Structure prediction request, 185 residues.
Amino acid sequence: MIKDIIKEAEEHMKGAIEATKREFQTIRTGRANAGLLDRVMVDYYGTPTPVNQLASISVPDARMLVVQPWDKTALSAIEKAIQKADLGLNPVNDGSLIRIPIPQLTEERRKELVKVVKKEAEEKRVVIRNIRRDANEKIKALEKEAHVSEDESKRGLEEIQKLTDKYIAEIDRLLEHKEKEIMEV
Prediction:
């Protein structure tokens, strides 16, 4: 029973790590990254559609993204969606594809992005702590109902704490890496 609770908590914590990675991928650095456009939704024949389902996105060099739609009629809709996404990017439509130059980040913008990343990391730490709290409550309830011994309960709580420490350290590592990526010129 306790093993199931621990396993479930670990699965949820892994989910928080994956969500953190996805979030960090969409935050712009000075380098081109196809993940920047992951959240861009294009109004395609009245249906909001992710841009990566309408076009191939390539990174020909460190300062350029190229979006090549499979349906050329979607070009202007994709261009508008990228402009509306508030990514600080100016797409250039040449009639068959869209080039997106990635401008250098100003020092001020870098600091703003670091704040955004830190806020996101803290939110994910809170998620992990909430998972810990829920798992601890389940284990304590089992002990209270006499389904497990006090020793088993204590071991379960220790195991949950180890998982919590491990995944919070992973978020800290991801944060440190992303901060370094944002601040490098």
